[in-house]
Amino acid sequence: MPKLNSMFKKTTYITLSNRRQSIRQDAMVTEKELEPALSGEQPNVPEGLWKKCEKCGAILYDKDLEKNLYVCQECRHHQRISARTRISQIADAGSFEELDVVMQDRNPLAFPNYEKKLAAMREATELNEGVIYGLCTIHGERTVLAVMDSRFMMGSMGTVVGEKVTRAIETATRLKLPVIIFTCSGGARMQEGILSLMQMAKTSAAVEAHGRAGLPYFTVITDPTTGGVTASFAMLGDVVLAEPGVLIGFAGQRVIEQTIGQKLPEGFQRAEFMLEHGFIDQIVERKDLKQRLFQLIRAHCPEKTEGEAKDK
Question: Does pTM surpass 0.90?
Answer without folding.
Answer: no
